[in-house]
UniProtKB/TrEMBL annotation:
One of its GO terms (molecular function) is transferase activity. The active site is at C78, H170, E172. InterPro entries: Class_I_gatase-like, PdxT/SNO, PdxT/SNO_CS. Belongs to the glutaminase PdxT/SNO family. Gene3D superfamilies: 3.40.50.880. Keywords: Glutamine amidotransferase, Hydrolase, Lyase, Pyridoxal phosphate, Transferase. This is Pyridoxal 5'-phosphate synthase subunit PdxT. It catalyses: aldehydo-D-ribose 5-phosphate + D-glyceraldehyde 3-phosphate + L-glutamine = pyridoxal 5'-phosphate + L-glutamate + phosphate + 3 H2O + H(+); L-glutamine + H2O = L-glutamate + NH4(+). Catalyzes the hydrolysis of glutamine to glutamate and ammonia as part of the biosynthesis of pyridoxal 5'-phosphate. The resulting ammonia molecule is channeled to the active site of PdxS. In the presence of PdxS, forms a dodecamer of heterodimers. Only shows activity in the heterodimer.
Length: 189
């Protein structure tokens, strides 16, 4: 199985290492041709406005949106969640607009407010897993087709809508591979 990782910013190497650890091929995605033969795509963290701008400059936004709408499994972590959302609070501009969620960016505050907790996530892991939040967004509203996977202190931090998975936190920044395993299970055709 070949899993692409959008390689413009963020924890690219960390995501790729986890994918390889699970026995799959990890592919850097820097241009639209790189998504031709992949089974899934990860949008890592970073700065969503900058990543969106680069996607537009490289004419990747519309072809990516079309691939996702046609069923390509995707996972957005942190900024990736913002890129995939149909609505961003206090911002009239969106990016890929493929998941029926409204997100609040930097919902937990600034860099200094970053934190890590360990929790069990039903359906993902039987054991507690570390969740790393860095200037993280969370979901403030969602459509009927969106399944909530996990909440922290009443805030939605992980959700799925068909072939689209989003997390506020960064599983790639831990040694735990359970969330990557969960995403790979979405990519099996």
């Amino acid at each position: 199985m070949r899993i692409g990782v959008l390689s413009l910013q963020g924890g690219v190497v960390e995501h790729m290492n986890h994918i390889r650890e699970l026995g799959s091929e990890a592919v850097e995605v820097k241009k639209i041709e790189d998504i031709k033969d992949i089974n899934g795509l990860i949008f890592p963290g970073g700065e969503s406005t900058t990543i969106g701008k680069i996607l537009r400059e490289r004419d990747m936004l519309i072809p990516l949106r079309e691939r996702i709408i046609s069923g390509l499994p995707v996972w957005g972590t942190c900024a990736g969640m913002i890129l995939l959302a149909k609505e961003i609070e206090n911002d009239e501009h969106t990016h890929l607009s493929v998941m029926d969620i409204r997100v609040r960016r930097n919902a937990y505050g600034r860099q200094i407010n970053s934190f890590e907790i360990t929790e069990r996530i039903k359906g993902v892991s039987e054991n507690p897993i570390p969740l790393v939040f860095i200037r993280a967004p969370y979901i403030i509203s969602y459509g009927d087709d969106v399944k909530i996977i996990h909440m922290v202190n009443g805030n939605i931090v992980a959700a799925r809508q068909n072939n689209i998975l989003v997390t506020s936190f960064h599983p790639e920044l831990t040694e735990n591979i359970e969330f990557h395993k969960y995403f790979l299970s979405m990519c099996i055709i």
